[in-house]
């Protein structure tokens, strides 16, 4: 029978019938909660069901069996040695050692995704509250402003915040962008100059093939780059506008810098004059200092990853790759 069902309890071979495995139901709010006994009947006495790899035992509150279970399973409950837990508390400590590697990797990916989602969600809430507080303080500081004007400003802010949240929930795909031309190729994919169909704005679209990243074990590096670009507000870092994926590729929609990169400039001019070299070296130092201020480290500094904007200033790209 299944772990959570069955009409008869299994026999362990020694003549003693084991307790039937049942779903875990926490006893919250005192010793009066229903807990399953060995006979399969509810009881109000504190008890703890522990499932090991060999058997399922119902441990009553006489103390001896419970202490053994806790020592072997890492479980705290009635009669246990952990004084910080109440009588009704049951803690299950699991180890990843017995699970297949694929399961552990999937669990790790799910954990990172949940952590990233809720971190981003909390960050958005904090930023919205901060913007509203700043507007309220600015409105209160204005002399001669009518109450109607203050309310109108707050309503305008709310409308903008709502529009921004709707934009964040919009699902994008590669079909929302029209390719102008391919402007670069790399080990994992290519970079295209694209135009967003609904707005006409120009972006650089980096396309990364998932199978290549998996073969070279580069998922962590790609995630690091995405996190840096998404969290950065630095003038020295290429801005990330959107990111999405499909079954085959990851897509990063970034700021397009028409100046190209320093490697292209070195190939074109061969040798930089001293003043030009001094200028770009100074900007590289400032850019790296700002990245370190954000708490990140660029692990691949080279002319190919130093881009130039339309005004001739540099920006860093390709973090961790």
From TrEMBL:
<feature type="region of interest" description="Disordered">
    <location>
        <begin position="1"/>
        <end position="68"/>
    </location>
</feature>
<dbReference type="InterPro" id="IPR000719">
    <property type="entry name" value="Prot_kinase_dom"/>
</dbReference>
<feature type="binding site">
    <location>
        <position position="206"/>
    </location>
    <ligand>
        <name>ATP</name>
    </ligand>
</feature>
<dbReference type="InterPro" id="IPR017441">
    <property type="entry name" value="Protein_kinase_ATP_BS"/>
</dbReference>
<feature type="compositionally biased region" description="Polar residues">
    <location>
        <begin position="42"/>
        <end position="68"/>
    </location>
</feature>
<dbReference type="InterPro" id="IPR008271">
    <property type="entry name" value="Ser/Thr_kinase_AS"/>
</dbReference>
<dbReference type="Pfam" id="PF00069">
    <property type="entry name" value="Pkinase"/>
</dbReference>
<keyword id="KW-0067">ATP-binding</keyword>
<comment type="similarity">
    <text>Belongs to the protein kinase superfamily. STE Ser/Thr protein kinase family. COT1 subfamily.</text>
</comment>
<keyword id="KW-0808">Transferase</keyword>
<dbReference type="GO" id="GO:0004674">
    <property type="term" value="F:protein serine/threonine kinase activity"/>
</dbReference>
<dbReference type="GO" id="GO:0035556">
    <property type="term" value="P:intracellular signal transduction"/>
</dbReference>
<dbReference type="GO" id="GO:0005524">
    <property type="term" value="F:ATP binding"/>
</dbReference>
<feature type="compositionally biased region" description="Polar residues">
    <location>
        <begin position="8"/>
        <end position="17"/>
    </location>
</feature>
<keyword id="KW-0418">Kinase</keyword>
<dbReference type="InterPro" id="IPR011009">
    <property type="entry name" value="Kinase-like_dom_sf"/>
</dbReference>
<keyword id="KW-0597">Phosphoprotein</keyword>
<keyword id="KW-0547">Nucleotide-binding</keyword>
<dbReference type="GO" id="GO:0007010">
    <property type="term" value="P:cytoskeleton organization"/>
</dbReference>
<dbReference type="InterPro" id="IPR050236">
    <property type="entry name" value="Ser_Thr_kinase_AGC"/>
</dbReference>
<feature type="domain" description="Protein kinase">
    <location>
        <begin position="177"/>
        <end position="321"/>
    </location>
</feature>
<protein>
    <recommendedName>
        <fullName>non-specific serine/threonine protein kinase</fullName>
        <ecNumber>2.7.11.1</ecNumber>
    </recommendedName>
</protein>
<keyword id="KW-0723">Serine/threonine-protein kinase</keyword>
């Amino acid at each position: 029978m299944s772990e959570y069902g069955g009409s008869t309890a299994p026999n362990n071979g020694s003549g003693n019938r084991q307790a039937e495995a049942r779903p875990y139901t926490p006893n919250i709010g005192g010793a009066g909660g229903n807990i399953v006994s060995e006979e399969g009947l509810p009881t109000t006495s504190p008890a703890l069901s522990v499932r090991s790899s060999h058997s399922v035992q119902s441990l009553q509150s006489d103390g001896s069996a419970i202490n053994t279970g806790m020592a072997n399973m890492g479980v705290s409950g009635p009669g246990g040695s952990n004084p910080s837990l109440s009588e009704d508390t049951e803690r299950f400590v699991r180890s990843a050692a017995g699970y297949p590697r694929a399961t552990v990797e999937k669990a790790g990916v799910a954990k990172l995704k949940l952590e990233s989602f809720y971190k981003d969600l909390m960050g958005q809430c904090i930023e919205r509250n901060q913007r509203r507080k700043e507007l309220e303080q600015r409105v209160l500081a204005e002399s001669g402003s009518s109450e109607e004007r203050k309310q109108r400003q707050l309503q305008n802010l709310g409308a903008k915040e709502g529009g921004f949240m709707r934009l964040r929930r919009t699902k994008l795909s590669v079909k929302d962008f029209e390719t102008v031309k391919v402007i670069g190729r790399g080990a994992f994919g290519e970079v295209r100059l694209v135009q967003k169909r609904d707005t006409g704005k120009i972006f650089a679209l980096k396309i990364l093939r998932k199978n290549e990243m998996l073969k070279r074990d580069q998922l962590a590096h790609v995630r690091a780059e995405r996190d840096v670009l998404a969290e950065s507000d630095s003038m020295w870092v290429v801005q990330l506008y959107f990111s999405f994926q499909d079954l085959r590729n990851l897509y990063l929609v970034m700021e397009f810098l028409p100046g190209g990169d320093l490697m292209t400039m070195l190939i074109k001019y061969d040798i930089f004059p001293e003043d030009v070299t001094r200028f770009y070296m100074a900007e590289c130092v400032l850019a790296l200092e700002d990245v370190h201020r954000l708490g990140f480290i660029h692990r691949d500094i080279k002319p190919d990853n130093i881009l130039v904007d339309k005004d001739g200033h540099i920006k860093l790209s390709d973090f961790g790759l």
